[in-house]
Amino acid sequence: MIPNCIIIDQDPKNLEILKILIEKQTSFSILSCFDNFNDSKHFLNSINVDVIFIAFSLPEFDPFIFLDSIKSDSQIVFISNQTEHAFKSFEYNALDYIEHPLNEEKIQKIEMKLQKLYNNSDQKSKPHLYLKSNLKKRKVYTKDIKWVEALGDYVKVITSKSDILVLSSLRSFEKKLPRNKFLRIHKSYIINLDRIDNLSSKNVEIESNLIPVSRNKKAELEKMLESK
After folding, report:
1. Topology of domain 128-226, per CATH?
2. For 54-85, what is the HEC assignment?
3. Edge-to-edge strand order for the sheet containing 51-55?
């Protein structure tokens, strides 16, 4: 994903310097540059912006008042030389606060912070389960589960990293899995639909492993695969 941004600065010289630095030192896509709040406000009402670079250029040019007047989930980068602005920027959950003179290192750090924020967000949003095995609870992302098979009073969860033995019936375990991603294709097997490599009349193949498909599940399996 390439993040986009806008720049708001009433000082044309500083605006141009920042624009050049962003273009040269980051992968940001600059959507537009503004020297006033009105135009930028109209723009933000119609376009989703990842990052807003906003500067304290003139005494009457107060970014805090502007940000209070808009509804936006954009990350904010404040640009100023006054310490009082730095303290207040934390109240706005600013991605960063940078001071003049601007340079390559400061701009590069902003991109690194944004990437870290996105990575953390992705990790938190990934569907996962906590599986109790050997007196420990292990976090397993559902996308990493290849299939689940019944073993008496246990189920064996086959993942991309390891096999995990969990005390559970297959029926109970099935209820924990996303219905649009997993299907019980046999009395002893649940498979991850995204992991199927091949499908034949009697089996599905996942990484060279053949897993039987019950006759009464074949039509449902084919229908779910067609809808993907």
Report:
1. OB fold (Dihydrolipoamide Acetyltransferase, E2P) (2.40.50)
2. EECCCCCCCHHHHHHCCCCCCEEEEECCCHHH
3. 29-34, 4-8, 51-55, 75-79, 96-98
What are the boundaries of each domain within the chain? 4-125, 128-226
d(CA 203, CA 213): 5
Calpha distance 208→57 (Å, rounded): 63
Rounded CA-CA distance 80/64 in Å is 12
pLDDT for position 109: 95
- The per-residue pLDDT for 91 is 81
Report whether 187 contacts 216 (CB < 8 A). no
Please give the model's pTM, rounded to 2 decimal places.
Answer: 0.56
Distant-in-sequence, close-in-space partners of 165: CB < 8 Å, separation ≥ 6: 133, 134, 151, 154, 155, 156, 157
Q: Within the chain, where are the H helices?
A: 12-25, 37-46, 63-68, 83-89, 104-125, 170-174, 215-226
Tokens of 7: 């720049």
Q: Are 149 and 155 in contact (CB under 8 A)?
A: yes
- Looking at domain 4-125, its CATH architecture is 3-Layer(aba) Sandwich (3.40)
Dump pLDDT digits (tens) for 53-98. 999 987 778 899 999 998 888 999 999 988 888 888 888 889 999 9
Spans in the chain with pLDDT lower than 70? 1, 121-125, 228
Residue with tokens 């996303």: 178
pLDDT of the residue at 228: 65
Could you give the angle at the alpha carbon of 94 between the alpha carbons of 93 and 98, nearest 5°? 155
Confidence (pLDDT) at 84: 81
